[in-house]
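ok here's Orc1-like AAA ATPase domain-containing protein, seq below lol
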Amino acid sequence: MAPAAPAWLPPDIPDFTGRAEDVAALTEALTRPAGLAPPIVLLTGMAGIGKSALALHVAHRVAARYPDGRLYVDLRGSGGSADSADSADSADSADPGPVLGAFLRALGVDPARIPAEAAERAALFRSSIADSRVLMVLDDAVDAEHVRPLLPGTGGCAALITSRNRAFGLAGADVRLLDCLRPEESALLLGGLIGPERASAEPEALAELARECGHLPLALRIAGSRLVARPAWTVATMVERLADARRSLRMLRSDGESVEAAFEVSHRHLDAGQRRAFRACAVPDVPDFGPGLAAAVLRCSAVEAEDLLEGLVDLGLLASPQPGRYAYHDLVRRYARGTTGDSDDVPVGRAMTAAVEYLRGGAVAAYERLMPGDMLTGKLPRSSTFGGDFAHPSDAFDWFAAEYAGIAAVLRQAADFPGTLVRAAQLAVASSAYLAPTVRWLEAEPSLRALLSRADRVDDQVARAWLCYALTQTLNFTQRYEESARYGALGEGACAAAGAECAGLLSCILLQAADSAVSVREYDRAVTVAGRVAELAAATGDRPMAAWSRMLLAEAHRGLEHWTEAESELRAAVTGMIEIGERRGLATARSALGDLLYARGRFAEAELEQQECLADAAGDPSLADGEPVFRYRLAQAQLAAGAPARARESALLAIAAAEAVGEDLARARAHEVLAGASRALGDVSSTAPEVR
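and the structure came out like this:
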């Protein structure tokens, strides 16, 4: 009598949730018509991601396609059973030789015929299943060499492999990298664990609990099981405990399972350099980062840093969302911060300082490339940790776009590290080159206030001066001029207390004060303050500041209806901006001159200046926030000059530019011009929205 086909699969998980796309793809791969080569599927991903659960779920779905046997083995490639907490104390990975012996016996081979050598066993195994349909689930494998003896040789059989090792190296395998669950899948899993009544009672807390678990299946199941065991707890109670970074990982332990222990299995495979990188790079709260930041933190070359980071990716302790970028899962970051450092480990404070210094260096280089003649250029210290400059303004802007989320995160974090205050303040100021065109001032403000509060507590006058400048700029751009004036006065006092270290910054703070005065129509005060800046610029030979002060003097004179003086100052500002190569200042000065000429009824000249302004601004991403104003001013000059068709086209472009950057006032002004142009062309359907 022939032996029964082996059915070794462990039970499927009854409440398996989500992963519909993965299940469909794996099912298709394992059930396609048999060919000459067997289908080999590899599931890989970080600890706790649910590789084993998915493999078993799919194996049960396709079991009927493999009537001659469903073999399963835990190869303990990570040092213990896959994705389990007790694996940290288990034996080393399973030897393929004994596994092949067990497989052969299960398939009915006489034990006396089973050879002692692993290679001979592998050959006999392939022969034994050559004309059969057998599925092998090889769970938690080390690498290709670990599973190669266990693989079938003919197309009727198949192998489904799981491993934490992304550098598995198995040619011909269909590799599928598992990610965390989607938010809706996480909520469904938690709801199934704790019951529909508790889940529906706190839907917002349930979503927050899923976020605190990082949408990691192992963490979600442990959190759910802890809630089930504590019926008096609300979901919000669990969220509160997980939000406390000091005990969050301790909360994710239940019934012998532990997220921390699952990560420890992978951590034990790191060498000394990888452990150092794993811990140190987790210090800054950046959502993702490149080799440059890691090199600064680790004090090594970018090439060495990238090798270390790629090693962490291979072991599932770091993600690589795109080439050259790396990211920690939130729970892995918390685990990394809690690991014990070696004697040569990077101290937390030094790691944070290095990260801020690197980002500051990049931000300053980008600032100076985007605005080479700006009043702050040359006043922001460069950094040796950021290697190189940017070839084109778009390169600098793209760097900001890639790094700004990280910059914002470390600025929020830096208040807890007093030694980074000055660097963080200068980083915040340099980041204005990205904040302005993207109109993101309000996002930065809470961090600026927190940093200033810390600078006040530790009496850091240099940091206070830079932060006051950053706040006056933010407040001016968001039309809170009285508050800006107060911070300007504080910044002026901080500059005086700091002495030579902030000498160049004083003029910048004063210029912001002049800008505030113009905005609240205190034109006499604006003339006085801007004149003071001009005197300081002349005394120090500061050509950029001289050009910028002329622009503020022009605005103040215009407010006082000193038309000749205003025009003279603006033309001098245009000349000065050309001489120093400052495109943003040049475009702003030309646009202001065109607007002045428009106000004086010189419409043809006004149109010409606005066209020149747009030509100066073309292709420069740092001027995206100014484009709506430049275009609507051009449209109004064209309409006044008797060219409604051109005005209509310019107004439409102004509206599109304003909507792209969220500039409501410019959008409303452009609609007004559009309505006027449409009426002049006989189209009365266009109406202007109310100005907000």
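fwiw The two ends are 88 Å apart (CA to CA). kinda neat tbh
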